[in-house]
Amino acid sequence: MTLPPVIAIDGPTASGKGTVASLVAEKLGFHYLDSGALYRLVALASQKQAIDPKNALELGVLAKKLVISFKNGQILLNSEDVTEAIRTEVIGLRASTIAVHPEVRRALVGVQQGFRTAPGLVADGRDMASVIFPDAVLKVFLTATAEARAERRYKQLIAKGISAKLSDLLQDLQERDARDSSRGAAPLLVADGAQVLETSELSVDQAVKTVLDWYQSKIS
Ligand code: DC
Description:
- The protein is α/β, with parallel strands linked by helices.
- It has one domain: P-loop containing nucleotide triphosphate hydrolases (Rossmann fold, 3-Layer(aba) Sandwich), CATH 3.40.50.
- It has nine helices and eight strands.
């Protein structure tokens, strides 16, 4: 039996991969997995339970027993709506810290692979192409300069009425890039066979179109 096709889109924080991946999924009528949300959920739950971000064993146990559901754009953690709560910079940083532990990563493998259902899946994260879906039909490494990403994040926050400082955002995301890229377990990297998409100078529409064109050329 052939498994449904997967498009893996990996890249650094605030690269716009979530926006591009969800639009590509919508165009193709595919399911969408935001794997970063899972790490953010573990981060939020561990913060609520005051678990030390260095305690790999306890975090692994916690990650295994979380009851997570994605429903109509809402993210529920043990039936509580945490859609907004997982998007803060503090939770993003904590997610990056707890994601270094192989115990946490292992606990989330099955959940992520469970999203692969017909007619297909677009998955975004750091290790979609290298670890979770190594047989993805198309592997994209979507990136932009740190400055372009900090500016995008800044605009998003300001639009939401959240005050932010561009220099702090730039520093935070450089810190996260360094941690996500240098960790031993499933580091952020350009996977074998991945096509690099530099989006600093591209609009969202142009990035989406490029991914769709690449996918068409893979399947035709
Ligand atoms: O994509 P994001 O910014 O929501 O992800 C939050 C953190 O989760 C990121 O800094 C690293 C971690 N993460 C990961 O290690 N592997 C993934 N596949 C997705 C996210």
